[in-house]
Structure formats: structure tokens, C-alpha cells
Amino acid sequence: MIACVFGSGSAAFVEPTVQELARRASVHGVKLVGVNIERMSTAMDEVALVYVLPFETSAIGAPESPADTADLLAAAFPRSQIVNAVVAHELCTDRVALSERLLERGVAVPESLVTDSPEEAREFVRRCQHAVLRDVRAGRRGGGLVAVCDGTHTIAGEARGRRYALELRDDATAYHLAHGVLEYPAPFFLQRLITRVGRHGVLAPAPVQRAYVVDERVVFWTEAYRERAKRPSDFLVSPEEGAQRRFIQVVSDEADKLVRRVAKVVGSPVAAVDIVRSDTGYVVLDVVTDGRYMMIDRSFKSLPEHRDAFDLDRYVAATLVDRSA
Q1: Which range of residues forms the domain containing residue 162?
Q2: pTM of whole model > 0.90?
Q3: 161 shares its domain with 41
Q4: Over the stretch 278-302, which tens digit does the pLDDT of each residue have?
């Protein structure tokens, strides 16, 4: 038997995926069940494989470290193989650690800076002219803010068409917005904004390609894009930030090899890898996994062009069935 673990806080968006995985596994005569880890009363010895989806360990009184999460899963499913290991979830959630790991393995990422110094952060924005200020933990503040320097010491931040005066604080512990001023606490994780040159030499948003990788094989691609940019925040190209999305059929061999390598470096059997072409070649923006901390967005299923060949859960279920054999 296969178990898909999730928590009450994520049930509303996780349960449809669990139901789809169960339906596809049943076609092969394999039982897959959803397990709310907060409601478990005893360990499940009969489970052979566990596929982890989002849950909060704090809701069941467990510490927050990855090691403790792994111990928790091992205790709940003592005879099971955890398909998507906690260490991979943690790596993809920690943007700084992920960037460092990729660079160590020779994978290009946008020019980046992580610092506690407001002045170093401001200097980075001044030098780059436009930068993306992102939370060091993925999933907490969406795609980030486009940071722009007006030529003085002032930095503005923009997201979803709303602009704020950014006050970078090394003595703050939380975000605070009042009267159009956003206090942003350290550490500051900044990346150079990647753009493309559009018509007449005008900067335009660079399309972001997402590869869906299952067991080191790219099963399909989507692309997030914007036709034009009216304001700095339009250069944040992701569906979560209002960009459009489409399926794409043809990508370069370079892109295909890159995303498969990235998934192998991360160590997750299921991953969504976001890449964009810069002046020097492809760079990796993000890697998303199914796991305790995050979940790969399935909203592409609402696109009119969606069909079975573009169904991620079809491929996830197949690999779970194969591993349970």
C-alpha cells in the first residue's frame, strides 16, 4: 500500500491531488490512500511507500528541524520507504542553500547577494539597476519584489503593480507595512533581474520555462510569459504574479539536459525546475518539489490545452506504482 501524507492546513488543495493519484494507482491494482498525519493514532506498518505532501509539524507538537521531521515520518511509517526525502524538501525551500548547491555543481543561477547589511543590499540594487528581493525561504512571499533604486539612497519595491518605499532593516524581526513604507528585515536575498530585449531595443519580460521532471525524465514543459511590461513588477514572470502560462512542445537540448541535471542535484524524484535564458545562457530561478514544505502547482490543469500527456499526477502515480512493485 502507498500512503500520501498531508496535514489539515493543506487539505483543501492537497486532497484533489491525492484523489487523482489514488484513481490512477487503482488502474494498476495498487491501493493508494491519503493519510492526515495529524489524525494518525498508531503507526501504519502495512504501508510500503510514503509520498509526502504539505503538513505542519507544529500542529502535532513536533520540532521544525528536517531531522525531526524525518524521524516523525519514520515513526509513523516504520516499514516504509519515503519517496520524496525531507532533505530535498528543505533544500528547495532554502533559496540560499539551493543557489549555493547549484553553483557548487556548476549550474548557473542569476547573480545573487545574501547579506544582513542594508548598505550592501542597496549597493547591489544600484549596480544592477533592477533586482529581485526574495525571501530566503520559498513560499512565504511569492515571487518577491522588484527593487529599483531612484539614484539616491532610496529603494522602491514593487509587486503585483503596487509600489512601496523599501526600508531595509537589520534590526527588525518581521515585515511591517504602513503609509506606503515596507520595513523589510534581514537577511536580504537579492538576485539580478533577468530581462530580454524586445522590439526597438526596449526591455521586455523574459519568458520562464518550467520543466516537470519525474525520475530524471522531463515529462512536459510549460512557459510563463507576459506580452508587455507597463511597470517594474511586470518583470516578475510567474502565474502567481499574474503572468500567462502555456504548454510548450519544443525546447533546446541544452535546456533539457540542464533541468535533468538540476533535479538530480536536488535529489527529488519529482521536481519542477524554472529556468530563463540570460545573456550568457540559461540560469535556474527556482526548483519546486512535492513535500512537507511546498507543493508543485497543478493549476495548469485549468488551461484549455490541457490533456493527459500534460498531467503531472499521471507520471507521479506511475513512478509510485513502479516503486511499490
Answers
A1: 112-192
A2: yes
A3: no
A4: 888 999 999 999 998 899 999 999 9
